[in-house]
């Protein structure tokens, strides 16, 4: 096994070391600084992105806390509005009941007044009819009574005697 790559000779080993040294010098002078600069730049970019991610996470946490507070406040406002609406509804219903009761009482009072008025009117009409009938009956009776002259004179004298002058 005499492979020159596995068992190199002294000359090959020397030139390989010189080539490696030159390569290491060139890489050390120009390659490594560029590579380190790129790595540092990448590291700074990653740090900046991590800071931004942390800020975004903090902002998100703050926004979630504000959102929860706003939800609690909105729920409290909703509950208050619903409570006020229920109270308003109840007061409107109660006011409607009172107005309906008052209106019913007013209608009943007006009906009673109308009934009393109609009753008085009917009684007045009845009295007028009774008076008219009484006058008619009295007139007929007087006609019969006064047909006889002697009875008529007696009735006139009798009524004159009963009249008292002041």
The total domain count is: 2
Please count the helical segments. 2
Shape: rod-shaped
The proportion of residues in beta strands is under 5%
Order of helices and strands: HH
The secondary-structure class comes to: mainly alpha
Task: List low-confidence stretches.
Answer: none
Compute the average pLDDT. 88
Radius of gyration: 65 Å
Q: What does the main sheet amount to?
A: none
Portion of residues in helices?
over 70%
Count the E strands.
0
Determine the N-to-C terminus distance.
Answer: 183 Å
Description:
With 166 residues, the protein is an all-alpha fold. The protein has 2 domains: 11-43; 52-160. Helix content is 91%, strand content 0%. The protein is built from 2 helices and no strands. It has helices at residues 10-146, 149-162. The mean pLDDT is 88.
Layout of strands and helices, then pairs:
Elements (H helix, E strand, L loop, with lengths): L9 H137 L2 H14 L4
Features:
mainly alpha, 2 helices, 0% strand, single chain, 91% helix, 2 domains, 166 residues
TL;DR?
This protein has helices spanning 10-146, 149-162. It is mostly helical. It folds into 2 domains: 11-43; 52-160.
